């Protein structure tokens, strides 16, 4: 009775603050609606003890209860995430941004490999249920906003390769190469010689298979290898969606490792998710706690300022910084729609619990990017102290010129 009274008080308090298209179904069959609008999300409490998750509805508590099957949540993922965030804001005002936790996990080759295998080695077919055909698992680039996901992912890869001014015959290292899409594009379209490293067995096997199928084994090598064990010199280095696994304390050493592998006149690009909290804290209302527990063990997001500082500590000079937050919000929204469209197959491949994790994880990421809780930056850099005369004067080289502009740029100059 005490718990039910507390729940009734909580419901009344939320209703006074906000109207939501939400229905709560209690263990005794009672239904409570939070607005006159037809409910888009239903939370069912199968037993009285489950009410405790609603009394302090952080994203970690509600998300964890849903994943573990302690509560049932029905509705589209985008609606679920929006409503849970609204409940958290209405109920946990004291928690807000001020309690973003900076964790600082220990990292080692063994621990990092375990974390990568946990996230990526679900199954390749599972990822195919929501990714584009090339299986690019990172922020797409919507140059006009009208592109479909496949086109936007190709444009993202080209955007990266133009930014590092990739040339035929150059040696390219892709740290965290995923299923090999960037390296395949670099070899096919630019004639580059590429090395890709990953810690995921599934990615390694499929990427090697794709290289063989494309007939590019003479240009592309895929390795199951930690980036800290790579040796040699590379003209260009890319790292796309990988440095989130490195750890805040390890960032200077990570960028120093890139600097050691980079040729004196080389260029590197780091593409990664960042925190919008200046103190590198996790996302508010327990979102970061949920991600760390269920999605990316020991993953940590640095603020852009920390990233730039770590690059300088690693003896790299920053040349260009671009914010692609809006692009990742759209990418994750499309992934969520694809995931729900293929829900039956995804559930069969991953099991109920893993299905529920990804169901809210993808939509939660879209929400977080949309509302500036996290961001995404591409940063181009090179060895510190390089002769500035060797660098481009503008960003023109990064963007494909329109036909008229291209003709003007190529026309003879008056003398």
Describe the structure.
With 415 residues, the protein is α/β, with parallel strands linked by helices. It has 2 domains: 2-95, Nonspecific Lipid-transfer Protein, Chain A; 109-384, Rossmann fold, CATH 3.40.50. It has 16 helices and 11 strands. The protein has helices spanning 2-17, 52-55, 59-68, 77-91, 109-120, 124-128, 149-163, 181-190, 201-213, 251-261, 287-294, 304-313, 325-341, 343-350, 352-370, 403-410; strands spanning 22-25, 31-33, 41-44, 72-74, 171-175, 193-198, 220-224, 234-240, 262-275, 316-323, 374-383. The strands form 2 sheets. Strands 7-6-5-8-9-11-10 form a 7-stranded mixed sheet, sandwiched between helices. The radius of gyration is 23 Å and the shape is elongated.
Task: Briefly say what this structure is.
With 415 residues, this protein is of the alpha/beta class.
List keywords for this structure.
415 residues, alpha/beta, Nonspecific Lipid-transfer Protein, Chain A, Rossmann fold, 2 domains, 4-stranded mixed β-sheet, 11 strands, 44% helix, disordered C terminus, methyltransferase activity, S-adenosyl-L-methionine, SAM-dependent_MTases_sf, methyltransferase
């Amino acid at each position: 009775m005490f718990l039910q009274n507390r729940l009734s008080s909580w419901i009344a308090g939320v209703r006074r603050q906000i109207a939501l298209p939400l229905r709560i179904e209690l263990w005794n069959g009672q239904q409570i609606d939070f607005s006159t609008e037809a409910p888009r999300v239903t939370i069912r409490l199968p037993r009285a003890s489950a009410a405790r998750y609603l009394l302090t509805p952080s994203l970690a508590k509600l998300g964890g209860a849903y994943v573990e099957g302690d509560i049932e949540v029905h509705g589209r993922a985008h609606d679920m995430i929006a409503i849970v965030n609204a409940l958290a804001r209405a109920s946990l005002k004291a928690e807000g941004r001020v309690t973003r936790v900076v964790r600082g996990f220990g990292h080692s080759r063994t621990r990092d490999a375990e974390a990568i295998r946990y996230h990526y080695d679900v199954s390749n077919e599972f990822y195919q249920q929501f990714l584009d055909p090339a299986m690019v698992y990172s922020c797409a680039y919507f140059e006009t906003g009208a592109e479909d996901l496949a086109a936007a992912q190709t444009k993202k890869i080209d955007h990266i390769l133009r930014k590092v001014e990739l040339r035929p015959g150059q040696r390219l290292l892709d740290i965290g190469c995923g299923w090999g899409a960037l390296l395949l594009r670099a070899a096919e379209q630019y004639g580059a010689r590429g090395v890709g490293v990953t810690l995921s067995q599934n990615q390694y096997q499929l990427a090697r298979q794709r290289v063989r199928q494309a007939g590019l084994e003479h240009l592309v090598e895929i390795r199951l290898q930690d980036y800290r064990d790579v040796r040699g010199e590379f003209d260009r280095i890319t790292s796309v969606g990988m440095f989130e696994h490195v750890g805040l304390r390890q960032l200077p050493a990570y960028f120093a490792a890139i600097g050691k592998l980079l040729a004196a006149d080389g260029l590197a690009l780091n593409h990664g998710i960042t925190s919008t909290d200046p103190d590198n804290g996790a996302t508010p209302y327990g979102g970061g706690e949920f991600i760390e527990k269920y999605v990316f063990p020991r993953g940590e997001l640095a603020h852009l300022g920390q990233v730039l500082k770590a690059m300088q500590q690693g003896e790299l000079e920053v040349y260009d910084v671009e914010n692609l937050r809006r692009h990742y919000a759209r990418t994750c929204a499309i992934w969520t729609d694809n995931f729900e469209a293929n829900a039956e197959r995804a559930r069969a491949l991953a099991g109920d619990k893993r299905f529920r994790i990804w169901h809210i994880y993808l939509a939660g990421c879209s929400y977080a990017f949309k509302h500036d809780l996290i961001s995404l930056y591409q940063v181009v850099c090179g060895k510190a102290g390089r002769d500035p005369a060797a660098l481009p004067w503008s960003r023109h080289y990064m963007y494909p010129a329109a036909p008229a502009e291209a003709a003007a740029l190529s026309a003879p100059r008056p003398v």
